[in-house]
Amino acid sequence: MSNRGGEGDNMTLNQMKYAITIAESASFNEAAKKLYISQPSLSTSIHSLEEEIGIQIFRRSQNGISITPEGKEFIGYARQVMEQYELLDAKYISKFNAKKKFSVSMQHYSFAVKAFVEMVKQFGMDEYEFAVHETKTHEVIEDVKNGKSELGILYLNEFNHGVLGKIFAENDLEFHKLLTCDVYVYMWKGNPLAGKKTLTLEELKEYPCLSFEQGDYNSFYYAEEVLSTYEYKRLIKANDRATMLNLMVGLNGYTLCSGIISEELNGSDYCAIKLKSGEKMNIGYISRRGASLSPIGQKYLEEIAKHKAL
Known about the structure:
Distance between the termini: 53 Å
Low-confidence stretches: 1-11
Helix content: 40-55%
Largest sheet: 5 strands, mixed
Radius of gyration: 23 Å
Number of strands: 13
Mean pLDDT: 87
Strand order of the largest sheet: 4-3-5-13-6
Order of helices and strands: HHHEEHEHEHEHEEEHEEHEHEEH
Strand content: 15-25%
Number of helices: 11
């Protein structure tokens, strides 16, 4: 970036800090209060930054502010720069031990949460600041693209790999396979079908299939469950794993999964039964193209690798 208005390198870092704070606030006024500067000064600084980098980061309206798609990408890079700067400052200038950060986003997988738990236990929370986001498929992709998370845990199969692979490439992301597994039916042990060794979709047709809601990106390709194009007789959308488990008990519902389950987190009242189908799930992680994994990211993946399908 060029120097404008006498702004030096420190001001460039300040501009990134300002932009990040605005992105995390409801308005310029709220951000200015957090930063202990005047609202006009903040607006001027951001306007100068937007002119310098040639993109509009924020849209202003009477209802507040919103981030543009280009702005989201910029904020993602800015967060990475600021985090690295804070670590350098802590070690070489301020001489104190700043907490290292690790964040992961994932589709709704109990085994991925379990791996996160085990990783946190090993590293401890004194030196590290952790974040885990169990969320929609599109948001997993966006979180990694924008630097909110180092890794995103999701799956590819024969149906969605072409479309999602194209999306990954367009967003400068890479998919790395961790394991391949069959498709399983996950249900409450009180379900009349729970005693069977295998199940078919025909046997399941009178029971509600439970699917995670994908919001504005409710495409078949973004579905967290395989066989998303199948015409289910009864289908219920839910937003979170706890609700899904409640619906399994209350309505004898079921969902399709990888067969990699965590009784420690979900309890022992549920079971996974193999579905008779030729479908396979390739579970893996996405990361920014060419980015090196942090030591803690590597440890997290090692913990995931310990979880095997049934």
